[in-house]
């Protein structure tokens, strides 16, 4: 029989407010857990985004490079984020580097595939218009194709951010360094403090939603409105 009561929404909200007001969790201020998780997330996703953008641009610009490496991001898409745990530990041990590596490895493929597909699938009308105006080669690529692909590129960044956020929490549970939301959840679980675990889950949802909808969502809508030929945007 389960002896720990299931936390109610009201209890979870109360505990969350207590943590946000300066409470501690796992012998650390809650703000430190949140800050360290955000730092690892930004580092991992930043690395993945840089590599993904570079790969997508190179593959879309040079057919030889695309032919030689086309399978790499596609294969990465099929590797679950947690499957990188043994690789991360063998290469970096337990700690920050392993966590950031796992985030970057998981978030790289969505960005790379989106950048490449976005440029390759640019609207033919924009390409014809650019050529009629005398654009060609690198000028056409960087002033027409890349801007036209921005909506899909940002969609890829959104997928990469979401993937990286999920992997971050799992990585902190296994290869963390004593701080972070994932570490706080697993430690609260061992001490049967499920109320704090639920509060951490609520923070994870709120942060992910805020970044996706309030930042990247608005940016995506703006780029679609600017570069898409569609009359309406959902």
Write the layout of secondary structure elements.
Layout: H1 9-20, E1 24-25, E2 28-29, H2 30-61, H3 63-69, H4 71-77, H5 85-92, H6 96-120, H7 124-132, H8 137-148, H9 150-175, H10 181-190, H11 194-227
Antiparallel strand pairs: 1-2
Note the main attributes of this structure.
234 residues, mainly alpha, two-stranded antiparallel sheet, 2% strand, elongated, disordered C terminus
Shape field: elongated
Question: What's the helix-strand series?
Answer: HEEHHHHHHHHHH
Mean pLDDT over all positions: 83
Largest sheet: 2 strands, antiparallel
Which bin fits the share of residues in helices? over 70%
CATH homology group = MetI-like
- Can you name the CATH architecture? Orthogonal Bundle
**Amino-to-carboxy terminus distance:** 49 Å
- Uncertain spans: 230-234
**Widest sheet: strand order?**
1-2
Structural class: mainly alpha
**And the CATH topology?**
MetI-like fold
- What is the CATH domain class? Mainly Alpha
What does this protein structure show overall?
- The model is unreliable at 230-234 (pLDDT under 50).
- It is built from 11 helices and 2 strands.
- Helix content is 78%, strand content 2%.
- Strand 1 and strand 2 form a beta hairpin.
- The chain has helices at residues 9-20, 30-61, 63-69, 71-77, 85-92, 96-120, 124-132, 137-148, 150-175, 181-190, 194-227, and strands spanning 24-25, 28-29.
- The protein has a two-stranded antiparallel ribbon.
- By secondary structure, it is mainly α.
- The N and C termini lie far apart (49 Å).
- It is elongated, with a radius of gyration of 21 Å.
- The chain has a single domain, classed as MetI-like (MetI-like fold).
- The relative contact order is 0.15.
- The longest helix has 34 residues, at 194-227.
């Amino acid at each position: 029989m389960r002896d720990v009561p299931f936390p109610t929404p009201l209890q979870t909200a109360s505990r969350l407010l207590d943590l946000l007001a300066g409470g501690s969790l796992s012998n650390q201020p809650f703000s430190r857990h949140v800050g360290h998780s955000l730092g690892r997330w930004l580092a991992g996703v930043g690395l993945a985004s840089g590599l993904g953008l570079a790969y997508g641009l190179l593959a879309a610009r040079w057919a030889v490079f695309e032919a030689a490496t086309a399978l790499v991001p596609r294969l990465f898409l099929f590797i679950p984020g947690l499957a990188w745990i043994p690789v991360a530990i063998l290469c970096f041990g337990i700690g920050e580097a392993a966590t950031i590596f796992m985030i970057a490895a998981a978030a790289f493929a969505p960005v790379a595939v989106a950048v490449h597909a976005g440029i390759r699938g640019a609207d033919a009308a924009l390409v014809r218009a650019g050529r009629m105006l005398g654009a060609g080669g690198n000028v056409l690529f960087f002033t027409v194709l890349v801007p036209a692909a921005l909506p899909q590129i940002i969609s890829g960044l959104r997928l990469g951010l979401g993937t990286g956020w999920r992997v971050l929490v799992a990585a902190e549970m296994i290869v963390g360094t004593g701080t972070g939301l994932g570490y706080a959840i697993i430690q609260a679980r061992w001490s049967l403090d499920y109320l704090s675990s639920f509060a951490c889950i609520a923070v994870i949802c709120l942060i992910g939603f805020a970044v996706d909808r309030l930042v990247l969502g608005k940016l995506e809508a703006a780029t679609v409105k600017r570069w898409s030929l569609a009359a309406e945007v959902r």
